[in-house]
Specification:
The chain is mainly α and about 140 residues long. It has helices spanning about 1-10, 20-55, 65-90, 105-135.
Length: about 140
């Protein structure tokens, strides 16, 4: 939707949504990498920490710098995602739907709003609940 709407409306309304494809693509790539790191490295390491704590075994270290370093990296990446969403909000004038917007444009704006809500929820669950509990193990 980002590419389609930008392609059409950058011709019809020059300057509208300038920069959106670039910031969105950067965010998409960052989120993909972030989620892969969580699924392949962080979450399995957390499961091992919990298992080892419950069984009394010695936990195996995770990656360079250990679990705390990986969590710090994830939180740093959360800040990057928040910054990208701020930029998207700016480019879309606070997710305003212009009077000339077609259904696809409307769907894009609503989808971007939902994406921001999902990202905020993800960050809250990890930064405020999961990460502090893991670091307290």
């Amino acid at each position: 939707l980002v590419a389609r709407v930008h392609r059409v409306y950058s011709v019809r309304h020059p300057g509208e949504l300038d920069g959106l494809p670039q910031v969105f693509e950067s965010l998409r790539a960052e989120l993909q990498s972030h989620l892969e790191t969580e699924e392949l490295l962080l979450f399995p390491a957390i499961r091992l920490q919990v298992r080892d704590r419950e069984t009394g075994a010695v936990a195996e270290p995770i990656g360079v710098g250990g679990l705390a370093q990986t969590i710090a990296r994830m939180e740093y990446e959360h800040e990057g995602a928040e910054a990208a969403m701020r930029r998207i909000r700016e480019v879309t004038n606070g997710y305003a739907i212009p009077h000339h917007a077609c259904a696809t444009y409307r769907a894009l704006i609503l989808g971007l709003q939902a994406l921001e809500a999902d990202i905020r929820h993800h960050i809250h669950l990890e930064n405020d609940i999961l990460h502090p509990r893991v670091l307290a193990l």
